[in-house]
Structure formats: C-alpha cells, structure tokens
Amino acid sequence: MATAFLSLNSLPTQPPSRKIIETSLNYATSLKPIVISGDPPTFVSAPGRRIVAVGDLHGDLAKARCALELAGVLSSDGRDMWTGQETVLVQLGDILDRGEDEIAILSLLRSLQIQAKEHGGAVFQVNGNHETMNVEGDFRYVDSGAFDECSDFLEYLNDCGHNWDDAFASWFEVSESWKQERKVSHGSWGPWNLVKRQKGVIARSVLLRPGGPLASELARHPVVLKVDDWVFCHGGLLPHHVTYGIEKINNEVSKWMINGNEDDNGPQIPFIATRGYDSVVWNRLYSRDTTDLEDYNIEQIQSILDSTLQVVGAKAMVVGHTPQTTGVNCKYNCSIWRVDVGMSSGVLDSRPEVLEIRGDKTRVIRSKSDAFSELQAADYI
Questions:
Q1: Of 131, 135, 168, 261, which residue is most buried, by most CB within 10 angstroms?
Q2: Could you give the CA distance from residue 303 to residue 89 in angstroms, rounded to a whole number?
Q3: Helix (H) or strand (E) holding 35
Q4: Phi then psi for 251, rounded to 5 degrees?
Q5: What domain of life does the UniProt record list for this protein's source (predicted)?
Q6: Per-residue model confidence as pLDDT tens for the chain (381 residues)
Q7: Catalytic sites, residue numbers
Q8: Closest CA to 93 of 370, 345, 339, 357
Q9: Which distant-in-sequence residues (6+ apart) come within 8 Å of 111 by Cβ?
Q10: Helices 102-117 and 61-70, interaxial angle, to 10°?
Q11: In this structure, are strands 336-338 and 361-368 parallel, antiparallel, or unpaired?
C-alpha cells in the first residue's frame, strides 16, 4: 500500500459532479419513468414502483448487507448485485458512527444506485444527525475502526490517482482486505495505537470537513425526500419545516456541506434542519414510546403530524433515528412509520427489518432464524 500524505490541503475540495435539477430515468421497463426533481433530490415520481425503506445502519456492513438482501435488492451470493429490478430503495440516514465500515456501506449503496438505474429502479439516501455531526467535526461517536477505515481509504484514494468516483465506487469491494492487511501489519505493537488514532482523526477531518470529498458526497443526499405521496426523513418533519420549504432545507444543508462557512456571505449551518430537538434530523416527537403519554398529548401529536402531512401533500411519513425495540412499527393511524430497529452491532445488534410499500399496502419484512418471513402490517384505503 502506498502511504498518503495526510494534509488538509492534500485532496481536491471540488465536490463530485452534481445531478441536473430534474431528470427522467428511462430504461427498459413497462412502467412510466422515474422523475427526480431537485438537487439534491427532493421530489420523486416513481409510478407503480415497489418502495423499500431501510433504517439506521451505523457502520455495520454485515447487517447492512443482510437488510438489503431481506429487502430483495441485493444478491445473496456475495457478488453484491442489484436484484431489486424497478424497486425504489430509501435509506433513512445514520450510516456514520458506532461502527467501523461506514465508507464501505456508502460505497455499496453508490454501487447499487448505479446498478438500479440500469433496471429502472433507484436508490436514495437521506442524511441523518450523525452525518451532519461529522461534517461539523463532532467525532464523539466514531468507532476506532472507523478512524482506521478513513486512513485506509485515503491511501486507497491515493493509489487510485485521486479519482474519487473510481475509488469511492469500488471501496466496498476491497475494504475488507485492507482491514485485514492493516491488522496483520500492525499486530499488537502498542506505540502504534496512538499514532494510528492521530492519523485516523486527520484522515477523517480531511474527508468530512465541509468541502471535503466525503462531505461533498453526502451533500448529494437530501435531508427530506418525498417519493410519490410518502415523505422520508431521519428524525421527523414538523409544520414549520414545511412552511420554511423542504427543497430550501435540502439546498441549504447541501451547500453547507460543500462550502462550509468560509466567509460571512457563505451559508450558515442550517439550524432548522440540523440543530435542536425540533430540527429535522434530531426530532423524536413521532418516535417516542406513547405508553407514558396522556390521551391529550397523543391527540396533539396526531394533529401536528396530520397538519404536516397535509401541507407537504403526503399520506404518511417514514422516519429513523430512534431505535424501536419492538421492530418496525406504525403509530398515529399508521401515518408515521418508525424503521430504525437498532440493527448495528454498535447499537442494539438486533435482527434487520425493512418496510415495503406497494401502492396502498405496506408490510414489514423481517428474518427469523436466518429464514425470511413477512408480516402484513397495514392496508391503506
């Protein structure tokens, strides 16, 4: 492996190429094309598509693969091939922190995104609070192995001649071998641990600072995504978010991730999206346990949710962020779906579950004893 010089100026700060504002995905399919509006994507028309939603992954590549296989979009033969055909996959954020294979998961999803387009499907991700925290430089929840992965990936990027698209799209294929080689070469040499950690922190700062290549990659993803009449976000959308404008929110977060606050005229950290208990990525209003709430509290939350959905023109919302110990579930007349099951070994190490949406029907798909099973969850009228 070549050794990369870890300097804040050692990588180009130009973001990856951005998509046009509106694009229509036309492929060999009997369905109408998927139409994506916004940069990053905000509104998606996906007529007749099966939609699957996957919750927080937190750096656990094995669980991520299991969830994607369960969703029917990833091959189970180890080749990491898209098997979802015209399916639309939405991942609800929090890929970063608490696990050691963060970039590998992002890389795998990028590969699936490319493959899905060839079959008339699509892959979308929304950014969660752990994505925005890391771009802000908050590394409190970073796994030690994730710092190592950042160091390894920078070296791999250097080996790839700093061709970001090539290195990023292929990292999930080679990351395990780099990890194993690192463990063998470093062994149990104690003094290396401190040096390794310092190197990892610098590498992560290079990649994830505003304008850094990985931060610019995250800037491709929205904070709020509306697919047909379903809205997806990490924490929860409130009426004042919709009034402010979800496309405006997405644009502000994206610009901040790309440019930071380099001068007084630059975009400031978008507090309405990323800071505070009622921000889009931190909100837990819809995800909390209702057993300790009075009836009037539940009615208030129902009213807030109904108002939000009415303004945004959606019939239901899907959120992550708060682990559900009972698995994927719905509340408030099934107008909110909670899909974070804490599957990562760094969280609850629970069995993966995914939500499937087909027109007016939804179901939770979960595995039992390594055998797939399905649970009918709700029918919409």
A1: 131
A2: 29
A3: strand 34-37
A4: -65, -40
A5: Eukaryota
A6: 443 333 334 443 344 444 434 444 445 568 999 999 999 999 999 999 999 999 999 999 999 999 999 999 999 999 999 999 999 999 999 999 999 999 999 999 999 999 999 999 999 999 999 999 999 999 999 999 999 999 999 999 999 999 999 999 999 999 999 999 877 666 555 555 677 789 999 999 999 999 999 999 999 999 999 999 999 999 999 999 999 999 999 999 999 999 876 555 655 677 899 999 999 999 999 999 999 899 999 999 999 999 999 999 999 999 999 999 999 999 999 999 999 999 999 999 999 999 999 998 999 999 865 444 554 444 333
A7: 130
A8: 339
A9: 80, 169, 172
A10: 30
A11: unpaired
Query: What is the residue whose two structure tokens read 């608490």?
Result: 98
CB-based contacts of 121, cutoff 8 Å, min separation 6: 49, 73, 82, 84, 85, 86, 87, 88, 89
Q: Is the dihedral of CA 95, 116, 173, 354 positive or negative?
A: positive
Is-contact 57 349, C-beta < 8 A?
no
Per the rule left: phi > 0, alpha: psi between -120 and 50, beta: everything else, 93 is left
The tokens describing 58, both together, are: 């937190």
- Give the rounded distance of the alpha carbon of 95 from its chain centre: 5
- And the tokens for 298? 């539940």
Report the number of secondary-structure helices (H) and strands (E) in the chain: 11, 14
The 3-state DSSP class for residue 322 equals coil
Q: CA torsion 206→57→179→219, rounded to 10°?
A: -20
Q: How far apart are CA 346 and CA 315, in angstroms?
A: 33
* Residues facing 37 on adjacent strands: 22, 43
Cβ(55)–Cβ(38) below 8 Å: no
